Amino acid sequence: MTDVLVIGAGVAGASVAYFLALAGATVTVLDAGLHAASTVPAALLNPVRGQSGAVDAGAVEGMALTWELVQTLVGGGYDVPHGKTGVLRPVPDARTRARFEKRLPAELAHTWLTPAESPVPLSPGWDAILHLPEGGWLDGAAFTRALLAASGARVVLGQARKWDATSVELHGGTRLEGKAVVWCGGSVGASWAGHPATHRAGTMLLLSRPVSPLPISFGAYLSPAAPSGKALGGVLGATFEEPSLTFNAGPLPLGSLDWLLKKGDALADMSGVQVTGRWSGSRLSGLRVGQTQQGWWQLTGLGSKGFLLGPLRARELAGQVVG
């Protein structure tokens, strides 16, 4: 009998499977094939979040763990495009800088630069630039696939219809038994399950080339991107649509396209760069981690921090499940 059944094969489920396997568990992952948010072409490892400069508890440790996993996976022969290049966070005025400074933990490596000191040219109008040398970007889809493969977990394709502390029933009637069940459904899975939650749609424009050799982020972000097997390109992305009560990653409204392009121009010179495609996903907000009253476990609601905090929370959860 399988020790642990993990519902969901996005970054949360793949991370849980990986750390459960390291702890000696036999794992089966149930994959419905719609883990949209985890297929992001360029996820930033950026612990200083949003325009408020908030730094989550565990963000510095989480960033270090994700980079450690990337190196382990690459060393094991997995293709995980990434760049530990650092991240630039320009701020528009002294008030914003003071807000950021107030929230920067002592253990986070950082320096403040003037626009003239920036390692890459930025658009005019920025007051100062926060340089995070240990940040960077990675290909979310490749990282997630590699984690799942490295876990050695058995993967069963199908959508979970219902579950309890020790079993899962799939659409079609197949029933799987285990010693524990971990639900790692994201925006899509929460909508299927009818869980009340907040969903936020995000969009990336795929660019013909990187605008900058390292990510630049404020309001939106520009980053290099190199999907597995493809040449280096770039992305311009943001999570900016109104929150929804259900999964929603529909067409990008023209007004949103215009907003996103203007945000990109405000960061750096985008002249000569062509838009070659679009990626959209929907993230689930409101972190839930631990054992439920019904006896099954969960790791969900990572929002835009799936690659920053997902592996760290998964390692903690796996220890509780097998402990």
From TrEMBL:
It holds the Pfam family DAO. Keywords: Oxidoreductase. GO terms for molecular function: oxidoreductase activity. Residues 3-318 form the FAD dependent oxidoreductase domain. GO terms for cellular component: cytoplasm. PANTHER family: GLYCINE OXIDASE (PTHR13847:SF289), SARCOSINE DEHYDROGENASE-RELATED (PTHR13847). This is Oxidoreductase. It comes from Deinococcus puniceus.
